[in-house]
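Subject: for your reference before the review

Hello V.,

The reviewers asked for a structural picture of the protein, and I figured it would be easier to keep everything in one thread rather than splitting it across files. Below is the amino acid sequence we used in the manuscript, unchanged from the supplementary table.
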Amino acid sequence: MSIRICSSPLHPSFALRPRAQIAARSLRIVARAENDSSRSKTSDQQQLNLSVLRFTFGIPGLDESYLPRWIGYGFGSLLLLNHLSASGPTSESQLRSEALGLSLAAFSIALPYIGKLLKGSEVEQRTLPEDGEQVFVISPNIGESLKEELAWATYVLLRNTSTVAVLISVQGELCVRGYWNCPGQMSKDQLNDWFKRKVDEIGLADVKETLYFPQYAGSSLSWDILPDGTRSLFVQPLVENTNESQKVDGFLMVASTAGYAYSDKDRAWIGAIAEKFRG
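And here is what came back from the structure prediction:
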């Protein structure tokens, strides 16, 4: 906006205006530019929030990946009921239609199994750790708006994936949620300091590449913060590419008690959430 104003001396009428009018118009232009920028940021933030939402019915215990199976059972049962309740003779066209409908219902029933077969491995169901503390800790030095974003991100990760523990680090400040192998009798400030020490011991703040362990079975490193029974571990670094180097702003780590818990689609979705906190 200011560069555009500087080019306006090409118009003589602008040069003849009083200085007070020019200053007032400049203030209006600057104020309008700030408002437009604020609205643009808000719109981009809302669009980004919607881009990482996933479809779910929100019914506890319902696995939406098996929805085609239940649809197949339902329509197949209706076709059989319609055939058995028919009073008159069945025509050939109706038999062909019913055979096609039953074939589609059988395909819907088998679709979840086909999907797992194409993935090359069967995804296990997560189980909540018997030992471990359920915590929700956010560093006190984080601003209110960022706290809301972190709380929202950790919630959707626990709700929409097989995750039982999630940790997000942004500029050295932490948000920890879920089940963790941590001391029980500690305040939130003490837990925050304890997790920071553990993160420094593991060296997660220096990770520059995405790490995924679909069959995690422990490590020689001090990963004792993970809940007992952890089978899958995924770490997404927050890397900002500069001109000649890479700057690490933090990381996002999720853990699950199910093996092969994070498919390619899940990892891409988690990466989209991590992108919100980069830079």
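For the response letter, the relevant points are probably these. Strands lie at 133-138, 165-170, 173-180, 211-213, 232-241, 246-256. The helical segments are 2-6, 12-15, 19-51, 67-84, 92-119, 144-160, 188-202, 264-275.

Happy to draft the paragraph if you're swamped.

O.
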